[in-house]
Amino acid sequence: MRISRLLTSAFLLTLTYSAQANVTLPALIADNMVLQQKSTVALWGWAEAGETVSVTASWQKAPVNATADAAGNWLVRVPTGQAGGPYTIRFQGRNELTVRNVLLGEVWLCSGQSNMAFSVSKKPNSGSYTGVINEAEVVPKASYPAIRMFTVKNTVANEPQRDTQGQWQVCSPQTVGEFSAVAYFFAQEIHEHTRLPIGLINSTWGGTPAESWTRKDVLEQDPDFRPILRRYERGLTTFEQDQATYKQQLAEFQQERAANPQTARMAPVAPVGVTSNKSPYKLYNGMIRPLIPYTLRGVLWYQGENNADRAYQYRRLFPALIQSWRQEWQQPEMPFYFVQIAPHRSQNPEIREAQLLTLQTVPRTGMAVITDWGDSLDIHPRNKQVVGHRLAQWALAKDYGAKKTVYSGPIYHSMKVEAGGQVRLRFDYAAGGLQARNGPLREFTIAGPDSVFRPAQARIEGNSVVVWNEQVKQPVAVRFAWRAIPNPNFYNAAGLPATPFRTDQWKLKTQGLL
What is the annotated signal peptide range for this record (predicted)? Predict the structure, then answer.
């Protein structure tokens, strides 16, 4: 028995030493991956401390060497040329690894909650966020071997993780069903315009707030964000009791919905426990940190629904997330394009304003407006092709040289009160004129000094809109599409919808909620 135990111990020690000695790679650095073209990309992994790792890319003449530090970490930076491939990369230390079918192209991180996670094909028992409206048409045509997607495993982590799980999938009719639909339609359009390979990193989880994707120290260091952490810590102390109450409320809600599927009452909200995907900073730890420093072209983001109840705070939280990610990737000008929340009964206009303000104040951002494609009863509108298209317009214009591409609908610029109680509104992105579709302009309201908003008449005059209400003799403010479920019909000549807006600075319902 003693000899057996000694042999077993020796075998385990051999395994441990072998594991330490072997060069290993993160899940992202694997067959079928796409690396950012015309840049210097980061390649990294682990080995025994002090071990020399030689990295040879088949598009390079000479290898690049690195030495593993005391913790076994190593990293090299390899120049990349123009898009192309397939290439191989050989990693050699005490052992040798070869990564095959590598393309040089454009790499986009696609993140957020369920509307970005929303897959091309319908999945059984998956709720409402799978299956695009034109799935039967899209899937058979999805033969794009130069488009690849890596889907990050859903992971809640207390501490920053060094690796994730997942694999690169080559786009085909057999694989596209699992792709994020918004990301796929974006990539398809960019690829067809540029012929460049496109790599998509899908790091998403439904029902998650922005703070879950934000680094802990970013939340700790800002007085406006510390209440998020305090609320989370308090909730952990009462979690068991809160969970019991939630289960009872959920059962009552499900009974009510079974009796009346069109019930207006919202489902109860589950308490946030230590393993919840709504926990602050833990999705950053488990699903973003392991991706750094994989070199990116930019980020696509579709999130905000779970921050609508604290929309005013999102004015600062969302920009803070963007800034921190850019810092982490050491890419201060990294494009960050996002989707404005669609009309839905749970989404107040304040969350859309917070997103608009991010567009207006954070450089190198873009916003796809989809007020014309919402669903008042389903927070997951199924037409994802229009979303991917509108995101692609920003990228084509800003990053791929399509200078004539119009990428934004009208954005409010200024107002002027004119004779007769009329207000003239001027807009950016109004080149070619403004349009009302299917009847006269809708969704404009106007208020006087009493701050009471009344429905307004509106007409287009060139690149401006004139708004009035006979009852408002001294107008001071105008709002457009300022409600949870607006039904606007205001576009520019390129067919892009105007973003909701307000001209006033009066206090909002979520103001002061932290």
Answer: 1-21
